[in-house]
Amino acid sequence: MTEKLYYQTPVLNECDATVLVCEPQDTGWRVLLDKTVIFPEGGGQPADKGFIGEAVVRDAQEINGEIWHECDMPLDVGAEYKVRFMQGIRRDHTEQHTGEHILSGVAYSLFGAKNVGFHMAEEYCTIDFDIFLNEDELTVLEREANLIVRLDLPVRAEIVGASELEGLILRKKSDVKADEVRIIYIDEGRVDSCTCCGTHFESTGKVGAIKITDSQKYKGGSRLWFNCGGRAVNAAADMQRTVTELARGFSTSREELAAAIRKQSEELGAAKKELKEKARLIAKLTAEAKGHDGAVVLNEPELNSADIKMLAEALTARFNCAALVFGGGAGVTYYTLAKSKSVACHMGEVCKAVNAAMAGKGGGGADFASGSSQRPVTPELVSMLENYINGLMKGAGK
After folding, report:
1. Are 197 and 47 in contact (CB under 8 A)?
2. Residue 12: what pLDDT?
3. Half-sphere exposure of 141 (CA within 13 A, CB side)
4. What pTM does this model have?
5. Angle, CA 154 vertex, CA 229 and CA 179 arms, to 5°
6. Helix axis angle, 87-111 relative to 135-151, nearest 10°?
């Protein structure tokens, strides 16, 4: 069984080790050592990257207690090599993993939220909780987690036998069956206590900072995205750049940005309401000018899909008619069909005929239908459809 120096002496970043097995595989060579400082993938944490001599270690996996290293070149069996991991990657992973324990422990003590999932990727980390946490609760969680960081509380690991584990009260216990289990305690369990195989700092202060960047409802609970340490610093810098750019766009300061956005949103809402009322008035006036009883087919290419709907409604409110109005936008022809209550023909059925004539797609019910097509509207098509709808109305009236 490989000697796991990353547990025995966590601060050790290199060692001398002997190659026991080196065998080819599709992605390079699989190497087994008698000892290693390279942490394999486990506990939601990616594997270290590093070197065995001149060989690059791209991945590491634990299989039946042995640590197999995926290397980019073969190594001599029986030879001794210097083994080292990339310290920046290990530090990043350890920041995220220790921070996750702090967040999970604090969420459990404050809200009774149980961690039911953890994933660490190269660009982000997520925790899934079994209950929903709202924005106010997440604010408290982040504040309290960072207090734990600033207090620089002790973090220690303990190895216990499977029989001892049964009697321990922990925030979370692993379901994996093993003779020995590793437990992580933060402040002797007052902040967190959890079975875990990942890498952790010896105190919370080394995490640096914890930042919750996003959250959403997930499977009846919450999924939150977070960054710790260097990732948190980078996330804060990115956010500040974004806020600064937005503030400049609004010609205001970062402090006044929220108020400026609210003001513009209110102004935009009022302008949209005014524009809609004007569009409704234009539709009414257009209906007065171009409408009549019977079949009304209009081609108004300058109107969008919302405008032609208003026009069709205005026509059927003013006249005893069946209306078909064409509009346009971005190379697409839109059409809306509507009828007055006293008109007997079915607009969904009329829409099928328009679809056939225009090679379009659409549908609807007895009173209203709509569709779209890539084809333009010709005067001949307008005349043909007007005659067709008139014929339906006359037939329905007999």
Report:
1. no
2. 82
3. 31
4. 0.73
5. 100
6. 120
